[in-house]
Amino acid sequence: MKIRWGVLGVARIATEKVIPAMQRGEWTEVTAIASRNLEKARAAAARLGLPKAYGSYEELLADPEIDAIYNPLPNDLHVPWTRKAAERGKHVLCEKPIALNAAEAQELLDVRRRTGVKLQEAFMVRTNPQWLKVRDLIADGRIGELRSMIGVFSYFNRDASNIRNSTTSGGGALLDIGCYLVNTSRFVFEREPRRVMSLIERDPDMLVDRLTSIMLDFGSGHSVGTCSTQMVYYQRMQILGTKGRIELPIPFNAPPDRPCRIMVDTGADLFGSGTTTIEIDTCNQYTIQGDLFAKAILNGEEAPYPLEDTLKNMACIDALFKSAESGQWEVPQ
């Protein structure tokens, strides 16, 4: 038995990454896609081999043969359409960030309680074997005591028509990609930061944050990072301890067609003589994410990445935005 999925919208992440990945899943079957433009939906369905195309999101949600919804709509539409899907009895896997702020995320906790369906934010890195291996390496003492995480995530996009550059759609660097720096920091430290601080530089015309740097204080360790929507295309994560260092060359957009690499350095010297490379078998993190969520539905289990954790991540992001305005440390609420 497979969970039958419907997709809201024809966003590139859906048509180029998530749907093809979920079509290869053991427990997932993508059967329908909807767009506000029927021709776009039909074209996407034909290209992807999907049997159903709808000219409205409402029609898709009304389909009794759809068990679960994947929601990759613009950020400001995540909560409204996730709520509508849940109220139609559909489980929902919603793209990150699941909401524009923690108050919106709290709404979804209430929706889940009222409807009884499973709701999850699509942070695919949480189920990626390379990140699970990182936590195992730290737990095994390979780098001693965890002290610091240093991350960068950036690309260049100054297209004013792109939703990532729209303040009303929830665009900007922190919500789009900085959320990964926050999420993986909390994932690796396995606790919440005591306080956070940020610096934000905004585009003078579009007003979105185009360069955001963050610091998370975990007490015995810190995480610092920079994200930008107007900087060279790059991503990297360094994790440093008292006895060693872990480096992830492609921490977030992990390739589906080749192994991921994790470098573990003992710090023997600055020339890397103490570095070994661990290869993670080729896999697709979107396939894994979909299958784990589908299995939770089939087995009546909790969602792999619970909304309670999502709410804590959004609280950190809220505090980072607040810090940029106050110029002070802020405590996630």
Characterise this structure.
Helices cover 34% and strands 28% of the residues. The termini are far apart. Helix 1 (12-22) crosses helix 8 (285-299), helix 4 packs parallel to helix 5 (102-115) and helix 5 (102-115) runs antiparallel to helix 9 (307-326). The chain folds into two domains: 3-123, NAD(P)-binding Rossmann-like Domain (Rossmann fold), CATH 3.40.50.720; 126-286 and 315-326, Dihydrodipicolinate Reductase, domain 2. The strands form two sheets. An eight-stranded mixed β-sheet has the order 8-9-10-7-11-12-13-14, with helices on one face. The mean pLDDT is 97. It is α/β, with parallel strands linked by helices. The longest helix is centred in the last third of the chain and has 20 residues, at 307-326. The protein contains nine helices and 14 strands.
Q: Based on CA inertia axes, which overall geometry fits?
A: globular
Oligomeric grouping of the chains: single chain
CATH superfamily of the largest domain: Dihydrodipicolinate Reductase, domain 2
Please count the helical segments.
9
What pattern of helices and strands is seen along the backbone? EHEHEHEHEHEHEHEEEEEEEHH
- Give Rg in angstroms: 20 Å
Domain unit count: 2
The class by helix and strand makeup works out as alpha/beta
Given as residue ranges, the uncertain stretches (5+ residues, pLDDT < 50) are: none
The helix content is 25-40%
